[in-house]
Every structure is written in C-alpha cells, then in structure tokens.
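task queued by scheduler; priority normal; single chain, no ligands, no partner chains; default sampling; output format set to structure tokens
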Amino acid sequence: MEQKVQTYFQLKQQQKEIEQQLSVLRDEIVAYCAEQGVYETQVGGYTVKTVLQHRKEYDDQKLYASLPDPDIWRLLSKVDSHKLKSLIKLNVLSEEQISPACTLKQVTLLQVDKL
C-alpha cells in the first residue's frame, strides 16, 4: 500500500506541473491567435481554434438582496448558476431580478487538433 500512496503522490505532483505548463502554453497560443487576429489557424500539422464564451458570475450579497423572498436563498444556499437557471425556467426568478448581481466574464476556450 505504501508504494501505491507514493505513486499517487508522485503522479499528483506531475499533474500539477503538467497543468501549470499547459496553462502557460495555452496563454501563449491564445495570445498568438489574438495578435494574428484569427480564431482558427493551422500551425504545422495542427489546427488551432479559439472560441470566445461569456460566463455569468454572481455576487452573493447582491443576489440575496435582489431575491423577492429570502426563503429562495435556502434553495440556492450558495450561488450556483445551474440552480439559478432552473429557478428562472420555473419562473420563480426572472433575469431582471438577479441582473444587478450578475457580471459577464469573457472566457477564451482553446482547441488543438492534429490534422
């Protein structure tokens, strides 16, 4: 069992290092695409594609203040965009009610495929 724990620890360390390297490379590739003014390009034998997405982020205090009924907060307990979407679909909340608590964050996704 000690060997398995040791191997697990070592692999987790490698995973952290790899994720850090991937983050740096991702940022460099996204910056390159932005500099070139392209969302899709070919580099060597690879297709590189960036996709811009907008994600909503909510402020707990502002959201709580915008809720019509404090009991709804118990349904959320912590801001969860999936739960919020469900409450909006059920017409328990409206987009207008919670809009003061929401900010849009632009996220760039990166996809690299081998040709």
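post-processing summary
- Helices lie at 2-36, 60-66, 70-76, 81-89, 95-98.
- The mean pLDDT is 86.
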